[in-house]
Amino acid sequence: MRMKVLGCYGTEFLQFKSCGFLLDRSVMLDAGAIVSTLKLEEQREVRKIFITHAHLDHIKDIFFLANNLFEEAGQGLRIYSTEGIVRSLKEHFINGIICPDFTAIPQQDGYLLEFEAIQEGAFYPLSHGISMRAERVDHTIEAVGYIIRCDHGHIVYTGDTGPTDHIWKVCNTLDNLLAVFIECSFPNELQELATLCGHLTPQTMAQELEKLKDKDYPIFVFHMKPQYLKAIEEEINALGNERISILTQGEEIKL
Fold first, then answer.
1. How many domains does the chain have?
2. Helix (H) or strand (E) holding 106
3. Over its length of 255 residues, how does the chain's per-residue pLDDT go in tens digits?
4. Do both 160 and 203 map to the same domain?
């Protein structure tokens, strides 16, 4: 399985893009960066998007991608998340006011955009032996991370979260943890703000990683606020954990 980093930051300006991770060319984790990175022919291959929560920086490119696929025949775009998150997307985003109601536009095999609520804690099969499982995390609104299962192990993607416990407890029951993708939004000096906003700093990120019983896997950090990137990098490097690396846009990771 390959993961391409289309965007990995906690906001957007200039070259910095919000979070969007492309799995094997057709599945997205979050939708903060799709259309500004992929060519149109690459966008046409994206068919499934798994959303962690309903904040705009993680969902905005659903609108632009759907616009770009108006004339595409065949299978539409399917959006997955838990029932509460799907409800928020329908009521507050794809609602015919903020965005057109793409779910009412027919295509050959259904509609341009369709939502599917998935059950937390259950693996949802994708293709080629890959499946996805949502597990709750602690943010300012309802949010989940995802556990990706492939033939040779599991990958964890936290989405946006502050200090949390549930997803780590689940991870400690899994065999062969291959990688952890964990957010880190603010430097340590802004710990109070990070706590208020439901995010992590290098010091709280390190505390979260200690909750995992297994330690032999790479750790990839995302969702850094670009204006604090240098301070975050310095504080993560000061942890002295060689398994931790900070993601960059355009990076492609083989898992």
1. 2
2. strand 106-107
3. 899 999 999 999 999 999 999 999 999 999 999 999 999 999 999 999 999 999 999 999 999 999 998 876 566 899 999 999 999 999 999 999 999 999 998 887 788 999 999 999 999 999 878 999 999 999 999 999 999 999 889 999 999 999 999 999 999 999 899 999 999 999 999 999 999 999 999 999 999 999 999 889 999 999 999 999 999 999 999 999 999 999 999 999 998
4. yes
Q: pTM surpassing 0.90? A: yes
In a domain, 23, yes or no: yes
Q: Which domain holds residue 226?
A: 126-247
Q: Are 242 and 218 in contact (CB under 8 A)?
A: no
Q: How far is CA 156 from the centre of its chain?
A: 10
Q: Does 11 lie in the same domain as 48? A: yes
Instruction: Output the CA torsion sign for 128, 134, 140, 141.
Output: positive
